């Protein structure tokens, strides 16, 4: 029994799953063992103790982390998360994930990730600011536009990025907006950043639909998760002619086989903080993962499609708006059914792509209108989708394995060209 439980737990660990996916792609590329070790291991891992004066005058010491997995293709890129369960192992795995995500979409960044073990819901705004500034100050030797560029992640936001900008700028004695991305527009943020991940989901889904000869216009779409990524994806797909037939969020799940009015649903969900009870819809009594649709967009949590329910997935295309929504065992089942999974490292990379645009705009001091940002995003996402589709056809592998192969090849090629310093 313990062994079986261990296997199930491993199947449900998205970070362990990413390593398994990497290993499968690396095997197909016949990488030498030494090079494989080079690209799997993080370049640098930093742990800092962060003393903070609390509102009541007491002092608490928090633990912060920053991992640079790779900088061979450019500065480390990746978010900072605030959560009680943040650990070095988690941050290391997420940093590697960012290396592959940046490489597959071919932006000149490496991979990084950071975090602080804390519960931000139990901190006042002042305590949160002091904690953020202490973290930014202690890691100011790592951070920088040409070395390591953080961004928001779990429980962090544009305001926290603005505090990091100010702290870093004070230490450098100059204003430096390019040290982080995901900032407010007034502090060097980019137009189109909020919608970028959902817009990238649309572009990737459209390319895969073209590849398999299934028109996006008229396709029935079910969306799990109606937060930023899910709601934007649903809105843009509806504007492209798709029919949004089911939506689920924390409040519940609704459906209408004739198609939901997404514009009205967006207003309703914003007012009611959920989709449940939307006029004209019916409550969905079965899991949305199993809904009869052409395209499924899991844009909520990890481990939503597993070996237990994958055989009941009816969608022909699964567009991963979330990170790690499909386990490796489920991937095999879906492939046997003929379903195409657009992997997270490709499908939801629109956000980091526009973060790259934000960094470029900061460094130029020239800011693009939203339509130009969106046009550039489309160019990058379409090309990345074509690269992955071509690799999948060439090697007869899934889109996920193909995406890892594309990413790994790009990182390895730079390593080989630069050589190993000794």
From TrEMBL:
It comes from the Bacteria. SMART domains: ELFV_dehydrog. Substrate binds at residues 77, 101, 355. The keyword Iron-sulfur does not apply. The record marks 153 as: Important for catalysis. One of its GO terms (molecular function) is nucleotide binding. The keyword NAD applies. InterPro entries: Aminoacid_DH-like_N_sf (IPR046346), Glu/Leu/Phe/Val/Trp_DH (IPR006095), Glu/Leu/Phe/Val/Trp_DH_C (IPR006096), Glu/Leu/Phe/Val/Trp_DH_dimer (IPR006097), Glu/Leu/Phe/Val_DH_AS (IPR033524), Glu_DH (IPR014362), NAD(P)-bd_dom_sf (IPR036291), NAD_bind_Glu_DH (IPR033922). Residues 190-419 form the Glutamate/phenylalanine/leucine/valine/L-tryptophan dehydrogenase C-terminal domain. GO terms for biological process: L-glutamate catabolic process. NAD(+) binds at residues 197, 228. Belongs to the Glu/Leu/Phe/Val dehydrogenases family. This is Glutamate dehydrogenase.
